[in-house]
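Handoff note, outgoing to incoming analyst
You'll be picking up this chain. Sequence as last confirmed:
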Amino acid sequence: MADHAHNLRASAGAGRPFGVITRGTTNPNRLRRCDRWLAAQPEVAALLRHVPAPLVLDVGYGASHLTTVEWAQRLRRLNRDVRVIGLEIDPSRVLPPREGVRFELGGFELAGYRPQLVRAFNVLRQYDVAQVAEVWDTVCQRLAPGGFFVEGTCDELGRRAAWILLDELGPRTLTVAWDPFDVSRPSDVAERLPKALIHRNVPGEPIYELLHAADEAWDRCGGWAPYGPRVRWRMARQLLGEVGLPVHPVRRRLRDNTLTVDWELVAPHL
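Most recent structure output, in case you need it:
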C-alpha cells in the first residue's frame, strides 16, 4: 500500500467523493477512548436513543473495517437499531456488508446521506491545514437536525487521542484523552492534536496555554502520585477548575484521563 504524504489537498467534483486516499492503517480498539466518551455525552446519547434507526457514518475508515465494526457494537448498546455505514473514497477498500455494517464509496460529502452522527478519525491530519474549515463546513451542513460530527486524531494504538465535537453551527468542544500509564504529563498528548490545532501549539496560542496549565496542575498534584495517575489527574482537573479554567465535568467514571473544554477556549488566533 502506498505511503501518502502529509498535507494532501482534497478535491471535490460532480459525482466524485470529496477527499483524498489516506494511509488507512489501524489497530483493534484504536478509537475506544473517543467511542466511550461519545456514549457518555448526554446530548449525543439522547439523540441516538430517541431517533428511530439513527444513521451514523464513519468517514475514511481506511484499509481495515475493524474500528467501524467496533464502533457499531458500542453504539448498539445505546440503540440496537442504529444503522452504521463506513465511507471510503478508495473503491478497492469498499467491502460487502459484514457484522451489521455497510460499506460504501464516499467522502466528506457523506454520499448524499443526512446522518445523526459522523466520525472522521486520523483523516484530516493528512490534509492541507487550510482545508480543515471547508471539510468541517461540508460535513456540518449535511448533518440531520441535531446531529454531531466528531473529528480527531490518535496514535497507532489509541493510547493518546484528541478530538473536536461539532454540530451544525461548527466546533463546540475539544477533548484530549490518554492512557493514564502511557504519558508522563498531559502535554505529551500534543503530538496527537487535530490538524486545526497541532501547528498552533506554540507560546501565545490558546491550545499551548491550556496544555501548559494542565501540566502545572499535574505538577502541583505530585503528592497524589502514590495513588496512581488516575487519582493524580482527577485532583489536577479539580485544581484547574478551582483556578478558573472552565473544564467540562466527567460524565462517567472512565478508565481514561480526559480533559474537555469549550472550543472558544482553544480556538486559534487569526
